[in-house]
Amino acid sequence: MSAPAPRPGSDRYRLFWRWHLYAGLFVAPFLLVLAVTGAIYLFNDELNDAFYPHLRFTPAPWTARVPLGDMIDVAHAAVPDATPTRIDLPADHRRAAQVHLEQADGASRIAYVDPGNGTVLGVLAPARTVVGIADRLHGSLMLGTFGRYVMELTACWTVLLIVSGLYLGWPRERGWRVAIPDVRARGRRLWTSLHRATGLWVALLVLFLVATGLPWAVFWGDWIRGGAELVGEGYPAVYRRYAAPQAPRVGDAFNDVPWTLQRAPMPAANATSAHHDHGASAPRTGARHWTTAGLERAIAHIRAAGTDDELRVFLPSEARGALMAYTYPARPQDQVTYHFDRDGALLVSTGFDDYGVVAQAIELGVQLHMGNYFGRLNQLVMLAACIGVVVLVVTGTTMWWRRRPPGRIGAPASTTRIPTRALLALLLISAVVLPLLAASLLVVLAFDRWVRPHIATFRWLR
Q1: Domains and CATH numbers, the chain
Q2: Is this prediction's pTM over 0.85?
Q3: Alpha carbon distance 374, 352 (integer Å)
Q4: Closest residue by Cα to residue 256 from 78, 44, 73
Q5: Measuring CA to CA, which residue among 51, 11, 23 is closest to residue 153?
Q6: What backbone torsions phi and psi does residue 193 show, to the nearest 5 degrees?
Q7: 3-state secondary structure 20-48
Q8: Residue 167, class by beta-carbon neighbours within 10 Å (0-12 exposed, 13-18 middle, 19+ buried)?
């Protein structure tokens, strides 16, 4: 968030330095939250296994399993005030099945069931776990939609922070020796060296994390998803047969589905009924719109297709709804999604090859972002980026705090001549790639240029 002294007469350098400071001061606390919670979520399975081994593992490996319907029934009996919405069937015969239930107030519970004998091992409130808290902080600061917009703005301004930081810290006189911290330095020189070297090492990784995280954002996610669907590069074409003005979307009916399918029309047990449904999605009630025999027939079809991966099976919430099941392998190329009617007859089957090019790229990015694609190596690389962000926030904040004048933030003085071409290029690029950044940048630029200098209340912002 700080940099070496601006070069005399370099309006562009001073402009980049000023905006690097502004961006850094805004995003620093939120970046710290993203880095710490992201590092936790990278190891979500490992942490949950360590904290709840008595729930996630069965007392003994199981061979034959009881029917899914029986597992759902015993889980429902353990949480009678909730409605079963999903069951996760593990591939590892040492692990428990997870039955997800939703209470009337929207709170979720997970009942862990031994597939071998159908006994409930225990019930957990995922939102109260370390991983669950980290997940909610990472996405929305636990502030709902407002928090999601804050985190999206943070991601957008992080791009500006990195681009300006690379311009300011790019190796010049000393060459790439600056990429190695000078541990012999003291005071401000040490902090500057640590900040600069860390930034050079992790900048591209952090940009990658921003780019692969934005598809889940409120504004940018809908923007890129809508664009992909407009040009036919989003969800598979087979879903279009269920399209109708009031047809519910897959993401409305079920949580935690692949990004590509979030806005795909929800397949209906009777395709024509999609055109006569006047609600976005029916509320969940105690009524059961699936059968145990249908569930078993659906699972048998999936296993006959040759997959032994973990399955997530979603239960329909209304009579016209369909069962949905999908495999969740580490690599999205092996991802397959199925929809069945209540009797287990196949309605739709799609895989990665059916996704559009944009959707494929985003699904790949999501798995890399979450540390799944290359296993442990992927986790460690993403962890290095998270640690790098923490180092940048700490060193940048320390540098700024030490050099700021009393009662001011210590931003470089505004230039009398704005480097118009550089500013216009920045605005045009951000308007196309990150519209939210462009809009907020214009607001802050107008404030900095025409409001702050003329109102005494804001003069500390110098």
Answers
A1: 11-41+144-214+376-458 (no CATH), 53-128 (3.10.450), 235-355 (no CATH)
A2: yes
A3: 18
A4: 44
A5: 23
A6: -65, -45
A7: HHHHHHHHHHHHHHHHHHHHHHHCHHHHH
A8: middle
- pLDDT at residue 429 in the model: 81
* Burial of 63 from C-beta contacts in 10 A (0-12 / 13-18 / 19+): exposed
Helix (H) or strand (E) holding 324: strand 323-327
| Token pair belonging to 69 | 């319907």
Which tokens sit at 211? 């780019």
Characterize the bridge pairing of strands 97-103 and 311-314. unpaired
Q: What does the alpha-carbon distance between residue 461 and residue 409 come to, in Å, rounded to a whole number?
A: 6
Distance between alpha carbon 99 and the CA centroid of its chain, in Å? 23
Q: Give me the residues paired with residue 327 across strands.
A: 311
Check residue 247 and give its pLDDT: 80
Residue identified by tokens 């600056």 is 178
Integer Cα distance of 371 and 374 in angstroms: 7
Number of Cβ within a 10 Å radius of residue 184: 8
> Distance between CA atoms of 269 and 339, rounded to whole angstroms?
9
Residue 285 is predicted with a pLDDT of 52
> Which residues of the chain register pLDDT less than 50?
1-6, 8-9, 273-282
Comparing C-alpha atoms, which of 304, 323, 302, 301 is closest to residue 313?
A: 323
pLDDT confidence of residue 320: 64
